[in-house]
Design goal:
The complex is a heterodimer of chains A (152) and B (283). With 152 residues, chain A is an alpha+beta fold. Chain A is built from four helices and eight strands. Chain A has one domain (30-145): Jelly Rolls, CATH 2.60.120. In chain A, a hairpin with a 7-residue loop joins strand 4 and strand 5. Chain B has 283 residues and is α/β, with parallel strands linked by helices. Chain B folds into two domains: 16-105, Elongation Factor Tu (Ef-tu), domain 3, CATH 2.40.30.10; 111-240, 3-Layer(aba) Sandwich (Rossmann fold), CATH 3.40.50. A seven-stranded mixed beta sheet of chain B has the order 10-9-8-7-11-12-15, sandwiched between helices. The chains are: A alpha+beta (152), B alpha/beta (283).
């Protein structure tokens, strides 16, 4: 059976992270499961956890009045779900729903936030990694907004 | 090495008579037509990636990529999106109606360069149509190639082409098919996001892979950037380009693209050949 430590150490998101920092991550981590259809995050709720998806697919949704929820992206195995825990006001901006049964590692963002404030080296490492994810998703969103397959 | 256009034995400017055998609806605005030669001696040979000029009497002529199986020589198959008068007229042809066909023209996908290597197919929207003959070829000659990875992005689930075939291809050995849409409804259980987001699930071996890309030009720019990030050499990336082709033999200049004619030198180009042109706004 894979240990939390091994999963976290081998995940690309944590690649190159100082051993002490990795141990700290492990101490903030727990295995979690969500049934298909369950909401993992809800817009407006306090953002205190983020997730490393191990299995299954998660739909990130936005609610529009008088419409069904709109799926803006999906995340799958190996991806990180949630960064609102890192930035004020520490509230989720979107819903996230398990499309099928999801296994993930939940990391205690609130605890990590405090440790990042106390140790700026750790804070920089964490921000650097999240900035990369944000940059990739921003680029994908921009391309999505171009609606390139529409008849012009 | 580029595969050169199949030799045209007749006058390239003279349309050959074909008739519509079948019209199948792929999506609300996209149709696949099977055309059979009216003259039994006409053998419909082509290389994956080549295109034809389809002549609609009294309407005009259209450059359309061939989307059928190159091993079937008794027909030509085209997938057409109805976006204007001529394409609308084409997809509304009935069974038995005549269509003039010139070609095939152009340089197709580099199957020789792909031999023995993994083949990465990246398609966006109707861009899957010119890639389908290549997919047929790889699947029919499976031992000649490494893994086949098909990454396909569409606007929404109802805009995806060849959905049954995508599922069939995915069942082949050493074949990975990943599909995503920009806008997915709640009933869609697949990926939502642009085609570049699929790379992280694709288990590529960049140094032993060749990539073939077709789709809107903006999409191809993002895809080539991602392929380079994944470690593919610019020499191993091929793109199919589209411009307003008229004569199809490099005389008229309508499809001039920098120093190239898309109809004659393309439509498939090595990325390195046209990389600088992709960033020019007015080309």
């Amino acid at each position: 059976m894979e240990t939390l430590e091994r999963i976290i150490t081998e995940h690309p998101f944590f690649a190159g992270l100082d051993c002490g920092f990795t141990n700290l991550m492990v101490s903030c981590a727990a295995n979690v499961r969500f049934k298909a259809g369950a909401y993992i995050l809800k817009e407006g709720d306090p953002a205190n956890t983020f997730y490393l998806i191990r299995e299954g697919k998660v739909a990130v949704e936005v609610l529009a009045p008088q419409h069904k929820p709109i799926i803006i992206s999906t995340l799958s195995m190996g991806e990180i779900l949630g960064w609102s825990w890192l930035l004020p006001p520490f509230q989720w901006k979107f819903h996230a729903r398990a499309v099928d049964d999801v296994r993930a590692i939940g990391l205690d963002g609130k605890c990590l936030r405090t440790k990042c404030e106390e140790n700026h080296d750790l804070g920089y490492e964490v921000l650097k990694r999240f900035a990369q994810i944000m940059e990739q998703r921003l680029e994908a969103t921009r391309l999505q907004l171009l609606d390139v397959y529409a008849v012009k | 090495m580029m595969i050169m256009a199949t030799a045209i034995t007749t006058d390239p400017m003279l349309p050959q008579p074909y008739s519509v055998r079948e019209v199948a609806k792929e999506t609300p605005d996209t149709f696949t037509l099977r055309l059979d030669p009216e003259n039994a001696v006409n053998r419909s040979m082509f290389q994956p990636g080549e295109f034809s000029m389809l002549w609609l009497f009294g309407v005009g002529e259209l450059p359309i990529s061939i989307s059928g199986d190159p091993s079937l020589h008794d027909r030509l198959v085209y997938t057409v999106r109805s976006v204007g008068q001529a394409t609308h007229s084409l997809v509304n042809r009935g069974v038995g109606d005549g269509v003039g066909v010139r070609g095939p023209f152009g340089a197709g996908w580099p199957l020789e360069a792909a031999r023995g290597r993994d083949v990465i197919v990246v398609a966006g929207g109707i861009g899957l149509a010119p890639l389908r003959p290549l997919i047929y070829q790889v699947l029919q000659n499976r031992k000649d190639y490494g893994r086949l990875v098909i990454l396909y992005g569409g606007r929404s689930p109802r805009d995806l082409l060849y959905r049954k075939e995508l599922a069939t291809w995915a069942r082949n050995r050493e074949t990975q098919v990943l599909v995503t849409v920009d806008y997915g409804g709640l009933s869609w259980r697949g990926h939502v996001g642009v085609v570049t987001t699929l790379f992280k699930y694709s288990r590529l071996q960049p140094t032993r892979s060749v990539a073939m890309v077709c789709g809107p030009e903006i999409m191809m720019r993002f895809v080539t950037r991602e392929l380079e990030t994944q470690g593919l050499s610019r020499d191993d990336i091929y793109l199919s380009m589209e411009r307003n082709m008229k004569c199809a033999v490099g005389f008229c200049g309508h499809c001039q693209y920098g120093p190239h004619f898309i109809c004659k030198d393309g439509p498939v180009f090595r990325y390195e050949q046209i990389r600088n042109l992709l960033e020019k706004y007015e080309l």
